[in-house]
Structure formats: structure tokens, C-alpha cells
Amino acid sequence: MKQLLITLLVIIPLSMHSQESMNQFIDSLMSEMSLTEKLGQLNLSSGVGDLPVITEGEGKIEYIKQGLIGASGGYNSLKASVEESRLGIPVITGRDIIHGYKTTFPIPLALSCMWDLDRIEQMARISAIEASCDGINWTYSPMVDISRDPRWGRVAEGGGEDVWLGSRIAQAYVRGYQGDDLSAANTIMACVKHFALYGASEAGRDYNTVDMSRISMFQDYLPTYKAAFDEGAGSAMSAFNVIDMVPATGNRWLMTELLREQWGFSGFVVTDFTAINEMINHGVGNLNEVAVKALKAGIDMDMVGQSFIGTLSQSLKEGKITEQEIDTACRRVLEAKYKLDLFHAPYQYHDKKRASEVLLCEEHKSKARELAARSCVLLKNDDQLLPLKKNLNIAVVGPLANSRTDMLGTWAGTRDTTDIVTILQGIINEAGPKAQIQYARGSYFTEDDYLLNVNRKHKNKDAKKITIDPKQSQRLLNTAISISKNADVIVAVLGEPRSWSGEAASRSDISIPACQQKLLKAMLNTGKPVVLVLSNGRPLALCQEDQHVPAILETWHAGVEAGNGIADVLFGHYNPSAKLTMTFPRNVGQIPIYYNHKITGRPIDHNHKFTSKYLDVPNTPLYPFGYGLSYTTFQYGNIELSNKQLKGNVKLEAKIDVTNSGKTAGEEVVQLYIQDPAASVSRAVKELKGFRKIQLQPGETQTVEFTITCDDLKFYNSKLEYDWEGGLFNIYIGTNSQEVQAASINWTK
Ligand code: BGC
Fold first, then answer.
1. Which of 145, 272, 341, 406 is the catalytic position?
2. Annotation says 300 is catalytic
3. Which domains, ranges and CATH numbers included, belong to the chain?
4. Cβ(503) to ligand 1 under 6 A?
5. What is the pTM of this model?
6. Cα–ligand 1 centroid distance for 239 (angstroms)
7. Rounded to the nearest 5 degrees, what angle is found at the Cα of 618, between the Cα atoms of 612 and 619?
8. E-assigned strands of 248-376?
9. pLDDT digits over 642-685, tens only?
10. pLDDT, tens digit, for every residue of 137-181?
11. CA 683 – ligand 1 centroid, Å
């Protein structure tokens, strides 16, 4: 049989195979498969865990030989599946390659701030090139969950709060990973996650309940997933949360009616890690029942939970599911393997020679440096404190200044930390031959007992409690104060270690911890100019810092080349051009806060008490969506519209002159927003509908043009129809979501 399979495949190259030849191949393969072997294809084993059916570890290879595992990692697993299982069906190998593999790039939230789809695609391409020679052919990325809650640690993994931008970013990832030929040895299959709405977990607490109206789903959350599927993403991952009170993993409306019947998705769906088993906790059945629900909903592969392999044959005997339902799921998994050319060239993703050439190669590292610089958002720069001059005496302080691993952020592929460039090292590299750099850590990350020990409790019950030595804390601070005495400038590198963002890393207080703030205050008290360099995985609440610190650079978790890329910005080799893709609130109490909110019936009015506002803080954010400074300044002219009045399905041209009014060449992200102020449902104050990233020399003016079509005016009405309604539209173009020029048009149907 194995020989027959191969013969069928080698006759024609895979890229020339038709749907028909794939069907024939899979029909013939499936006709040979036993029920157990089919269920095996639906079973992803990660080699960890101790769930009921399969004991992991050494046993795993035995199970692979028996055809009980369809997805797993490692060369030995692959070899056993190909050479020692009855039908030789290769395992598919997935991993979380979300911002680079060995060459770890800035976290996805940082990358989104580049507003540069080509560079995001290049990043994903490099990720695929590296991962695909090291045994991986499937990545659990992109994460396209829209979130308006920076308490949720997983905002680090996504593309920000906006559905329009998020959709385009999602597509750039898919293009980068999958290229134009999924069967090629250097492309990998994308897995769009977490379908769906995972980013809207209540109170920003990971894995928490999601509850939202259908109209919000369709308008503000679902389009990113659809965009990725439209781009051809080969697989999807279910979310942990409920949707309409039914867990996404067992939600037939979501997984079949919407995803397959309405959107036409033809790839396969894997659950999130043990998400079927977790449906028991959601309170919708026992293991056998939830596995049935998941299969019937449209799930094809069970990640790690072993509920399919463990219970579905019994459920089949009891008539609760049909063999056809198992076949459908099995077919979809086999199709993915076929598209990756795994049957024909199973070892093409294990290529030591290619690995030695591409993993962390100079070309990839230099891209990582470029993207680290391009992801830095300049939040404040009084009196042009930045860029720093060369050859200064610089005091570098802060717990993130000399940290290697924290630069990687969540889900990093880099294991060996020797190649990671710290921010301190980057400054040393770029500061100039006569510069004097002194370093002091200055403070712990936190002295908060709960925060320090929460992870310890989870990892190891016997682990020693972490305690802070107050004397050491004082010594750290004193050293920082003493090295700053002779400095021309202080660079304070503060923020969050990598474990404070990503999965299961929600925070209820997103300010900089007290001990780091104390360090910052001590630095400000020296009277020296202080540059605050932030390294973190989410928007932070920075009111204090914004009030007192003259220059603030948000650098996120910037990857293996963090230090060099950040130093490029600090010393002006790269003029920052990134803009926030998530709103920075003034404090946690404002959350959820996002730019495309609705207007209430009682908009804020300080002359009237009974209007929508807080007593203790303005309604506006500290830094709005789309915000970010440059070392130069840009001036916007007025918007020129091609028409003041339009009818029907035509086009509107909007033009604006943007001038570099400063002394340095720079890039500007020119943003287009539209508002529909009167419609059958209440609409957002404005919605992003386009952007251009332009480069301008000092004094140069460019006319930036946008073409607006009726598609840009469409929205979901209360019948969930996607259409536009005629009337007045406000067109805004500007440098961020708040500072815009305005014009309006009357556009009837
Ligand atoms: C996460 C997913 C991830 C999976 C596999 C889960 O816990 O939610 O995003 O892809 O683990 O690592």
C-alpha cells in the first residue's frame, strides 16, 4: 500500500495536482484505513500530559506505529509514522511560531505598530524558512483575536484593537507562512486562532467568559478570522471561550454554519490545548458527550486531550455519531498533509543542511534589527531629548536593561540566549568610541509578594517562596543613583519581564510596578535628563511617567536584536515611525477603552452633570490608537474631496498634503477614518479605512490619495445584513485617531 501511495504521487509534481487527484488519493487511502487509524488522524499528541488514553513519553512512538497519533513533533515521531505504521501516514508537526523561529522578532503587537504589511509578511516568510527546515510544517499562527483590553496578556500575540488593520495583518501573516505553494519545502501551513472572540474575555482575565451581541461580533471581531481564511489559511484553531453560552469548541453554529457553510472554509480545525476536555468544566457534558459535541460541531483534530481517540469509537457504537462524521474530519486532516506534500516528501521539513544555513543567519538577524527599530513607538520627546548625541556619558539603569531572555517576549523559538543583544549592549555598540556607559540594575521587577509568587505556586508546590531583601533593594537603588551622578543622560529601561504577558498572564494593574517607579523617581530627582525606555508586552498605564519624564520610547519585547534595533532609534540611525495599534489608557478603570467606540446618548459635557464621564479621570486615553511621534514633524493640509455630493456605487477620491516640517527625513503613517453619523444603528465615532506609510525629506510635501468606495461605508445592521445606508459621511485623515483633518460628503444610494 505504501508503495502504491508513493507511486500515485510521484507521477505528477504536487503543485500540478488537481482537487480531483487529491480526492482520488485520499479516497484510496481511506479505503484502507481502520476506524482506529482514522481516529488516530484526529489525535494531536504533544508528548506532554498524562491524560487517560495514551501515556506519553516512550509510549508515544509505539502509538504512532499503531496509527493512533496524527499530529506530533520530532524526527523520531515522523520516522515512526512513515516507516513503521501500517499505512505510513506521516504525522503533521505544529508549533507556536508566532514572531519568528530561532530568529525571534519583536512580539506581534510590536510588529503591528509598524503599519507595514510587507515587512510583517517578510517576518512570517523568514519564520517559515527557518521552522520548515527544523521539522515544523504547521504554525499555530496568526493569532487574530481582536482585543480592547490590555489587561489580557495575550494582546502581545495579536495585531491590536482594530478590525480593519487586524484583517490586513492577518492576511500578511498567512501569505508569509504559506507563500504561493504550500507543498514547497520552505513554506508552512498557517493556523488561524483562536476561533473565535477569545480576545474579548471578560475583565481581561485569560480563559474567562465572552458575551457579546451578534452585531458586535460581525462588525468588530469576526472579520479578522474571515480575512485570514479568505487569504487561504489552511487550518484554524478553536477558542477556549463560550460564544452565545456554547463553548466555541462545541459550537456548531460557529464551526460549521458560519465557518464552512457561509465562509466556505475548506481546511481543518484543531482544538486549542485540551479545549474539548474543558467543555466539561464549562458544564456542557461528560467527556464522551463533549467529544461528540465537538465532532458534530465541526472539529477535526483534538489537541492533546485524547477525547476523540479515547471515546469516539464507543460513541459510534452507541449511534451518537456516524462513521461519516469521523471520515469527514479524517479527510480534512489528510488533505492538509497532502497539501504540504507530506505523503510524497515527508522528510523535506527536516533538512540539517538548510538549517545550518538559515537558522539565525546574518540576513535574518539584520531583518530582526530593522524590525526592532521599526516597532519602537516614540511616546514623548520633550525638547528633542532624543535622539541622543554620540560620545556621551550615559547611565543605563533598570531591570530590563541587561536582560537577554526578556527581550524575546512570549512564545519565543530562540533557546540559546547567547545571541540576544540586550538594550545595554546595543547602547554600548552604538554610543560612539568616546562614550562612557555605566550600568546599574537599580531595582527588582517587582516587590509585590502576590505577583512574585503566583507562578511559583502553579509550577511547583515545593518551590521556595521568593522573598525580597529590602537591604538589597536599597543597595540596587543606591548604585543606580551613584552611577547617574556623572552622567550626561540617564536611560531607564523599565517595564515587564516576558512572563508577564502572553498566555495566562493577565494583570489587573498595568502600571509600572512601584519599585521600578521608585527607581525612575530617584533618577528624575538627580536633575539629569531621563529617557524612559519601556520593554513590555501590552499597553501600560503611564500617567505618572508621562507627566514627569521628558522622553519615553515604547520598545516592547523586541526580539534577538532588541538592543541593536533600539539603539538605532535612540541614536537617530532610524527615525521612529511606529504608531500604536492599541490605545494606552490613563488608568485601568477606563478599560475597555478603544478609539472606535460609539457615541452615547449623553456625550461628555463638563457643563452638565448627567453626561457620560468619570469624576476622577477624563474620558480620553493617555495615548490614542494610531499615535506615535517622530524626530521630525509633519504638517497636514486640508482634505480635498473629489465630490461633495455622490449617488450610487461610485468612488470618492480624498486627497491631503502632508509636509515634513522638521529637519530630519522621516516616515509618517497617514490614517484615513470614516464616520457614518446617522444610520439605522448606532455607529462608531470613526473607523479606520485606510493608511499610507510615506517617506518625506525635510521640507518635502506629498499629496496622499485615498479612494473610498461604497464597500468602505458598509456595516452590519440589526438584521445582520452587511450594507451601507445613504446620507452624510465624515471623512477624517490625520496622524493618529484623534488628531485629524475633517471633511464631509453626502452620499446617497
Ligand atoms: C494556546 C494556543 C497554543 C496552544 C499550543 C494553547 O494553550 O492557547 O494559542 O497554540 O496552546 O501550544
1. 272
2. no
3. 1-90+306-344 (no CATH), 372-454+466-590 (3.40.50.1700), 634-748 (2.60.40.10)
4. yes
5. 0.97
6. 9
7. 50
8. 268-270, 302-303
9. 999 999 999 999 999 999 999 999 999 999 999 999 999 999 99
10. 999 999 999 999 999 999 999 999 999 999 999 999 999 999 999
11. 34
